[in-house]
UniProtKB/TrEMBL annotation:
This is Pantothenate synthetase. The gene is panC. Its main location: cytoplasm. HAMAP family: PanC. Pfam families: Pantoate_ligase. InterPro entries: Cyt_trans-like (IPR004821), Pantoate_ligase (IPR003721), Pantoate_ligase_C (IPR042176), Rossmann-like_a/b/a_fold (IPR014729). (R)-pantoate binds at Q59, Q152. GO terms for molecular function: pantoate-beta-alanine ligase activity. It comes from Moraxella oculi.
């Protein structure tokens, strides 16, 4: 496995491999088993796997955790070597953004106005720009993203389609701990006590889903509000708890594929989760 920190180095290494199928796994590092599963999936769909490790400053808002976001490059590279990744791309901020803040924006449209976009209004524009740059730098045939960031995945699909990158986007299922907490780099922020209570996030989604399966559409908001109140009663700060169809549009009669999405502050960690629901009635 080779590690590059410049665009020129990476592109030079990839140039003779253009007759092979190339996969990209974009990450911000501090890798866990969920990231390694993305690499494993990429290896099944491509001949060459490139993993990017870049803590992207322009997707962090004022007062967020950019400075404190865990950076563990040596440990990450060891994990990626063991996972048989081919290349790691770990550029500096100056390498990715010679002008910072950048002059160019990639605005991500209406999908940024809901869910995470309500409290992080510039976040997905930063995601859109960095993913566009990575697609241009690597020119992958395939890119693998996790479903835990469901809204991000939807925006990247839209970006890929509307900017004609022609990358095959593969969505990977959420990898969970034994108690069903979704794996996240930010889980490392949790104290022992907070880690013990965090599984209530997924438990709440499961309870709501079981009720949605038999409820009328008019009852959905009441069900969600009841469980929102239960989370608050556990001293958790709920950023959002919402139900959409699988296209992240308002649920209408006739929709069969739905998704529950949640963001909760557990201490200083803002944790995301979601649960897809398929109605059979």
């Amino acid at each position: 496995m080779k590690v590059f920190d410049t665009i020129t180095q990476l592109q030079s290494a990839l140039r003779p491999m253009r007759d092979k199928k190339i996969a990209l796994v974009p990450t911000m590092g501090n890798l866990h088993d969920g990231h390694i599963e993305l690499v494993n999936i990429a290896k099944k769909h491509a001949d060459v796997v490139v993993v990017s490790i870049f803590v992207n400053p322009i997707q962090f808002g004022v007062g967020e955790d950019f400075e404190n976001y865990p950076r563990t490059l040596d440990e990450d590279c060891l994990k990626l070597k063991n996972a048989n990744a081919d290349f790691v791309f770990s550029p500096s901020i100056q390498e990715m953004y010679p002008v910072c803040p950048p002059n160019i924006q990639v605005l991500s449209g209406g999908l940024t106005k809901i869910l995470c976009g309500k409290t992080r209004p510039t976040h997905f524009d930063g995601v859109g720009l960095v993913v566009s740059k990575l697609f241009n730098i690597v020119r992958p045939d395939v890119a693998v993203f996790g479903k835990k960031d469901y809204q991000q995945l939807a925006i990247i699909r839209q970006l890929n389609d509307e900017l004609n990158f022609n990358v095959e986007i593969i969505a990977a299922q959420i990898v969970r701990a034994d108690d069903h907490l979704a794996l996240s780099s930010r889980n490392g922020y949790l104290t022992k006590e907070q880690r013990a209570i965090a599984p209530i996030i997924h438990q709440t989604l499961q309870k709501i889903a079981s009720k949605i399966l038999t409820a009328k559409i008019a009852d959905y908001p009441t069900i969600i509000q009841q469980h929102h109140a239960e989370l608050t009663a556990h001293n958790l700060k709920v950023d959002y708890l919402e139900l959409y169809n699988d296209k992240l549009q308002a649920v209408q009669d006739g929709d069969r594929k739905l998704v529950l999405l949640i963001a909760v502050f557990v201490g200083r960690a803002r944790l995301l989760d979601n649960l897809e629901i398929e109605l059979t009635r």
